[in-house]
Design brief:
The structure holds two protein chains of two kinds.
Chain A: H1 2-15, E1 19-23, H2 32-37, E2 42-44, H3 49-61, E3 65-71, H4 72-77, H5 80-90, E4 95-99, H6 117-122, E5 128-130, H7 135-145, E6 152-156, E7 176-180, E8 185-190, H8 194-206, E9 211-216, E10 218-219, H9 224-231, E11 236-244, H10 249-259, E12 265-271, H11 282-288, H12 293-305
Parallel strand pairs in A: 1-2, 1-3, 3-4, 4-6, 5-6, 8-9, 8-11, 11-12
Antiparallel strand pairs in A: 5-10, 7-9
Helix pairs in contact in A: 1-7, 3-5, 8-12, 9-10
Chain B: H1 9-23, H2 28-32, H3 35-42, E1 78-81, H4 87-97, H5 102-105, H6 136-149, E2 156-161, H7 168-179, E3 185-191, E4 194-195, E5 198-199, H8 200-203, H9 209-215, E6 219-224, H10 228-236, E7 244-249, H11 272-283
Parallel strand pairs in B: 1-2, 2-3, 3-7, 6-7
Antiparallel strand pairs in B: 4-5
Helix pairs in contact in B: 1-4, 1-11, 3-4, 3-10, 6-7
Classes of the chains: A alpha/beta, B alpha/beta.
């Protein structure tokens, strides 16, 4: 996703000399093509994310379109107040590009996991939020939004190989995208874990369950109408995200259910655990947090076969985690 | 809008006192310590066009450092009041420049006003909203970088408080500007020795402050922050290849004897008697 995104950004920079790329000393092998093509419009500002967002604010006020790049937690959480008081308060077209949404930096440990970014950026009115599910969607999302006059946060993954079946790179700001039809259960997914969600839906269909999958890649504006329409057709919904349980797509779905008086039952599949000091691969962590295709299928099965849905998926921390595809 | 009077330190101080009393709010001492700095930046140069970096011949003019034909001019110099809590001094300056009407100035701290105790960019003349310390210099560095990329000689000047230099983000921007030789960037540090609830020497001792900036690659000069001529001169010089910092030695609450060096006047509003005395002292100066 990040490679495709930056390749697309380079194409945009060829057309528009306002486009700049600032990095907080990250993006080895990813930022170089842009840097070589536009040495004047590329700046490695060093390991100084607050300054990076402040610089971008000053550049945007003078007419530039600065994209600031780092790993999500350093791009969003460290300079959060600079984002709030800079691009958001001034309504300037700064783009915050965070890579590694969720647990993609598995082994790197909790300091590198991007788990709270949607929750905190959803709290900033006027900040557009784009969270593509695969690299094709990251390309179309950038092409659809890059010239927006206000600030944008792009939550990217690292995977430039896999695509979500049925998504075909579709993206529309303020809309949700249905990638799979089904009648028994609705999955509402944010981010690259959409791949595991569609695999789980496929597993379930082999067992005779019919599961629909909707992807939310646009927050602010939120796809409230699309979600309300989709949710009204189901008794059970699973929200799925590699993000904290509160503040992400699960919370959005809960808000839509409550505010529209819908009667469906929501189970939020997300990362809801106090850091335990143990790290591992992304696959290991997806399994641990119930976000592997098997884990999601198990939760869905439990919801579908139980008359009373569980409050949240129960995870066994004693099981031996396997790897998932 | 016609000019409403000379942009002098005395008229700025009078307006700061009047508005603080009318609104019954504090931040008076912080505003009083920067009036000469704002006079040097925004005051009209008496003659000629002393343009950036050009040597001034004969008498150095006072004021007129910032080149702002009008606040909406795209290629104007940028000014960032990074110590946003001195906003009233900026509003008084705008009023005396004719950018703000008396009626607008009288909305200071009123409901539904653009004139809060920290400057908002929605107000014409304010380039960047401030109030959260440590954010002005990074934005000013971005403004200076933008000017260079656009081939403009416009400057970016940020006014910081001394205690603001406690913020790590200030030094992020200091290092960046030095590395990139942003000579269009100037910082002014209002060295009044006080912070919100203590003296800087007791909280985080900053001395020797000029040496610290120099060690980070800046050209640093120290001046009397209440001498408009000295400030003007220091501000009109720029150094090729280096950003410049003016360490302006000031007195917190300058001009009002009972406010000078007193922590209380960071937040305190004036009583009627205090107001009368303050006006007398400022008018008599």
């Amino acid at each position: 996703m990040r490679t495709t995104f930056l390749k697309t950004l380079k194409e945009l920079a060829e057309r528009d000399d306002r486009v700049m790329l600032l990095t907080g000393d990250l993006g080895y092998t990813v930022v170089e093509p842009f840097a070589e093509a536009f040495p004047d419009r590329f700046v490695n500002v060093g390991v100084a994310e607050q300054n990076m967002v402040g610089l971008a604010t000053g550049l945007a006020e003078a007419g530039f379109l600065p994209f600031v790049y780092s790993i999500i937690t350093f791009a969003v959480l460290r300079p959060y107040e600079f984002i709030r008081n800079g691009p958001v308060l001034h309504r300037l077209p700064v783009r915050i590009v965070g890579v590694g949404g969720g647990i993609e930096y598995g082994h790197a440990g909790p300091t590198h996991h991007g788990l709270e970014d949607i929750a905190v950026t959803r709290a900033l009115p006027g900040l557009q939020i784009v969270a593509p599910a695969d690299y094709e969607q990251s390309r179309s999302a950038l092409q659809a939004t890059w010239n927006h006059p206000g600030p944008i946060f792009y939550r990217l993954g690292k995977n430039d190989r896999d695509t979500i079946p049925g998504l075909d790179g579709r993206f529309e700001i303020g809309r949700a995208t249905q990638v799979r039809d089904g009648e028994d259960l609705l999955m509402v997914v944010m981010g690259s874990v959409a791949l595991q969600a569609t695999e789980a839906a496929e597993q379930l269909s082999e067992e005779g369950f019919s599961v629909a999958v909707v992807i939310v890649a646009s927050f602010h504006p939120e796809p409230v109408d699309d979600l309300a329409a989709a949710l009204s057709g189901y008794r059970h919904v699973l929200s799925i995200e590699a993000h904290t349980r509160d503040g992400g797509v699960g919370s959005l779905v809960a808000e839509v259910i409550a505010e529209h008086g819908l009667s469906c039952r929501l189970v939020r599949c997300a990362i809801d655990a106090t850091p335990d000091g143990l790290s591992g691969s992304e696959g290991f962590l997806r399994h641990k947090y119930g976000l592997s295709s098997d884990g999601l299928a198990a939760t869905a099965r439990q919801v579908l076969t139980s008359s009373k849905a569980p409050a949240s998926p129960k995870l066994s921390t004693n099981s031996t985690p396997g790897t998932d595809a | 809008m016609p000019s409403v009077g000379k942009l002098s330190p005395r008229s700025l101080r009078r307006l700061i006192l009047e508005q603080s009393k009318r609104a019954n709010v504090g931040h008076i001492g912080s505003a009083l310590s920067v009036v000469e700095i704002l006079a040097a930046l925004y005051g009209e140069a008496p003659s000629g066009e002393a343009r950036h970096g050009e040597a001034t011949s004969g008498e150095a003019p006072s004021g007129g450092v910032l080149q702002i034909p009008d606040p909406d001019h795209a290629d104007r110099d940028r000014f960032i009041l990074s110590k946003g809590h001195a906003a009233l001094a900026l509003y008084a300056t705008f009023y005396l420049r004719g950018w703000l009407s008396a009626d607008q100035l009288d909305t200071y701290c009123a409901d539904n006003s653009q004139l809060g105790t920290h400057p908002e960019h929605a107000l014409r003349g304010v380039d960047f909203s401030t109030g959260s310390l440590g954010q002005g210099l990074p934005m000013a560095a971005g403004a200076a970088l933008a000017a260079r990329l656009q081939g403009s000689r416009r400057r970016a000047i940020a006014l910081l408080s001394d205690a603001e230099c406690n913020e790590g983000s200030v030094w992020e921007a200091v290092m960046f500007a030095a590395h990139h030789h942003l000579d269009g960037l100037t910082a002014i540090v209002d060295l009044n020795g006080q912070q919100a609830i203590g003296y800087t020497r007791d909280v985080i001792d900053l001395s020797p402050l000029a040496e610290r900036w120099r060690a980070f690659g800046w050209d640093a000069v120290e001046v009397d922050g209440h001498d408009v001529d000295a400030l003007t001169q220091a501000l009109q010089q720029t150094s090729t290849g280096q950003p410049r910092v003016i360490i302006a030695r000031t007195v917190f609450g300058k001009g009002v004897s009972y406010m000078e060096h007193q922590i209380k006047w960071h937040y305190w509003p004036m009583s009627d008697e205090e107001y009368r005395q303050a006006l007398r002292e400022v008018e008599g100066s």
